[in-house]
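Lab notebook: predicted structure, single chain.

Context: the supervisor wants predicted structures on file for every construct in the current expression panel, including those that have not yet been purified. This is the next one on the list. No modifications to the sequence; it matches the entry in the shared construct table.
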Amino acid sequence: MRAAVTRRVGEKFEISEVEVASPIGREVLVEVRASGLCHSDITVVHTGMGVEMPIVLGHEIAGVVAAVGPDVTRMAVGDHVVAAALQPCGRCTACLGGNLNACVNAGALERDPADVPRLRDESGPLGRLQGLGGFAEQALIHENQLVTINPAMPFDKASVIGCAVVTGGGAVFNAAKVAPGQAVAVFGCGGVGLNAIQAARLAGATRIIGVDIQPEKLALAKKFGATDVIDSSQADVVESVDELTGGAGVDHAFVMIGVPAVAQTAMAVLGFNGTTYLVGGMSPGAELPLRPSPAESGLLPRQQGLRGLWLGSSNFYRDIPMYVDLYLGGRLNLDDLVTRTIALDEINEAYEEMERESLGRTVITFPGAS
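Prediction complete. Output recorded below exactly as produced.
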């Protein structure tokens, strides 16, 4: 099969012929029909992020089950599936409690080192980021990372649910538990931010403020449900939020951009009892100053919080089918989220374009993805 392989830090994706093993145990062979392009993958390409290479990236996957290992019980050949970028063992206390991103058994879903590697080419074994490897025509994935979905769901829209949707929506529904009448601010109106905005709308927030520096993204934020938008390159965000909320600030501030200065601004727009949620990954070693006092603006007297999130604190077995149902019922906008579909061979050019101007999500589609 063909796959986009990352061989060394800083190099472009290389389209190569790759051999995928037959499924054993609880593994599932998926015919990939759609694979979303996420900034996390290109960050690995540029910085390495401690990942061993060569590797096949890609973690927003939707496809059809082509074969299953002898111990698979949750899905069958022909099922439509979406993958999630978590590797829950399914046995530890955290997993049993539905807190899948707190699994303590790292590597539990991987093959034994003595087994044939799941992916390899003429140079040897290939890694798969987060156990997935979606920039390929097929992916061999442990069943714990897959969820069966309604076959009426279009593959290109389904693929982004596994990361962009569960991350943005989960931040609102699972972590913040936004309530009707509350006010929220979303810093960064890319794919994840847009999903936080529309989730806040679904949750009943009455003031939804989108913050970005690109007018096109802010226009899209309005389309997804933002009641107000702020161009942070043209206006003082703290003053603008203060004016919009009558001095009350927001109940929840979601930071989708891994920049400490943006997180500091997000903390400055909180109202009493408000919380800032760090969603976008920050560079290793990044520091975020905190000011517990004084009384007029400190976290302690104003009883404010700061919380880190990973994949929207999602129980994806529950959440992914929910988002599929919301889309099919016309309540979740994914049609305007997926703004472009490409072939695998166009991956390098697509990522270059995304870095220049990222609006919505770009998705690789494969034959049969209609």
